[in-house]
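Sanity check

After download, print the first record. It should look like this:
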Amino acid sequence: MLHDPFPIFADWFAAATAAEVNDPNAMALATATPDGRPSVRVVLMKAWDERGFVFYTNLDSRKGAEIAANPAVHLDFHWKSLRRQVRVDGRAELVRDAEADAYFDTRPRDSQLGAWASDQSRPLPDRAVFREKLANATAKYDGTAVPRPARWSGFRVVPQQIEFWQDVDFRHHERTLYTRSGDGWTTGMLYP
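Expected structure tokens:
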């Protein structure tokens, strides 16, 4: 058994990238309010390394506000065609501005403009209001690069635990749990 979860994640993610038809980088993100009220949604992992798993969002969104108040989060990658899951328990930390800027610059222009136009997670009285805000952002940045809004950035989920779950017939699943211990990891098996 390896004592580092990241080579396993690299192999599993490569297999998912080859096998999954849509969004192998999709992960369920669970957050909670300070009083413990949970919320879950699917986001896209845009980067990962030994420091953690990165996604981007509007910091004023519901998930952004919940993370600001309670940075304990949980991720779940579910690759149904491979009969595998990876569960990550960790803490969300903002990425550096330079990292957020670099990723924002790779986004399609329409997505960049949408970041300016959207008050993500806020009530929208009519779709026409969003279209008008999008038109205003388009006019404002006509002929120029679209800068990253200050309220738009990324979070890195720094894992404390990573579980690899492999489906086995008769629900005899194989589950391996890695738990951060100092600068390394301890590992063990879990019952199915």
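If your output differs, re-run the checksum step. Summary of this record's structure: The domain at 5-190 is CATH 2.30.110.10 (Pnp Oxidase; Chain A).
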